[in-house]
Design goal:
Helix content: 40-55%
Strand order of the largest sheet: 2-3-4-5-6-7
Radius of gyration: 19 Å
Strand content: 5-15%
Number of helices: 15
Length: about 375
Amino acid sequence: MDLFEEALAKAGENCRELSFEDIKALLGAGESERPRLYALADRVRSRLLGEEVYLRGIIEFSNYCSGACFYCGLRSGNKGVRRYRMEPSEILEAAGEAAGMGLKTIVLQSGEDPFYTVEILTGVIWEIKKLDVAVTLSLGLRSPEDLRAFKEAGADRYLLKHETADADLFARLRPGTTLEDRVGSLRLLKRLGYQVGSGGMVGLPGQTVPAVARDLLLMRDLDVEMAGLGPFIPHPGTPLGGSPAGSLEMTLTILAVARLVLPDAHLPATTALGTINPRGRGLALRCGANVIMPNVTPQRYRSHYSIYPGKTGIDRDPFTSVREMRLLIESLGRSEGTGYGHSPKYAYTELHSGRESGVRSQKPE
C-alpha cells in the first residue's frame, strides 16, 4: 500500500490522527486519486456537520488599507484603487437588508483602516446585534483593547488569515510583519472568546506542499472554528501581478484535506473559487465545504473592493447574490442552515451553559 492509500485509510478510520507525513501524502493526490479523497471529505462533512450550508452576508465597508501586502490589490501602495468608506448608517442599512433576506450572520470586512475607531465599530456591532444575527469581524490587526471591546459589544467571530505558515515566505509577502506576531494575534482572539477563522491562499509564489501541510497543522493547533482556503489570484497593481494564479484542482484538494484535518471546522466555498471557475463553489461544496458568503455590499461600492481582479458577482445586487447561492444549494440537494451557524464546539458550550447563542453582550458606553 502506497503512502496516499495508507493516509486515506487512516483518515477514514480517525482523521484526527493524521500526521504531517499523512497530510503531505494526501495533498499529493494524483488525478485518479482525487475523486476518492473528495468523496471521503464530503462524507466527513456530512457526518459531523450535516447537510446544511450556512449563508453569511459579507459587507465590505472600506477599501482603505494601511498594509503593504504583496498579493493584495487593496495594498496602500496601489494608487489605482478608487477608495471608499461606508458611513455607519450605510453599514447598518446593508445589514438590515441582509437580515431581512433571512441571513443569520453578518460579516463586516475592511482593509486595515484606522479611520473606524473602536467607538464607531462597537456602536455598529451593537446595533447589528439587534437584528438577531451573529456578527463576524474581518478587520485585520487591531489592538488587544479594541478586540476586547468588540467582543463585549457582541461580536461572535473574527477572521484573521495567517496566509502561510512558512515564516520566511510570510515575511517576504507581508513586509514589516512576522508570522509569530500573526499567530500571537490568533491566540489572543481565542483567549478573548471569539470563534476564530484563519486560512490562506493556494498557489502563492514560493508555496510548497510541506508549507501547506504546516498551514493545516497550524490551524489544527489553533483549534480554529473556520478555515478559509481559496486560490491566489494575482492583481496587476501588486508586486505579484505577473505571477500565475492558483489552480482549481489544487484548491479543491487542499480544501478536502482541510476537511479531514479540521473535521468539525466550517469551510467556505470561497468567492475566489467562483472567480477562477464558474462551477468552483459548487465543486467546493462537494469536497467538504459547508459555508458560502454572498456579497451584500451595496452595489455602488463592490467593484472598488478589488483584492483581486475579475471578482465574480460585482454586477449583482445583494438580493440576486443571495438568491443565486440559494439556488446553488438547492441544486446540490443540500439545505440552507437556519441557525446562526456557530461552531459545533461553541454551540455545545452555549447549550450546556444555559446561554442563548447569538445574543449580544455589553452595550458600549
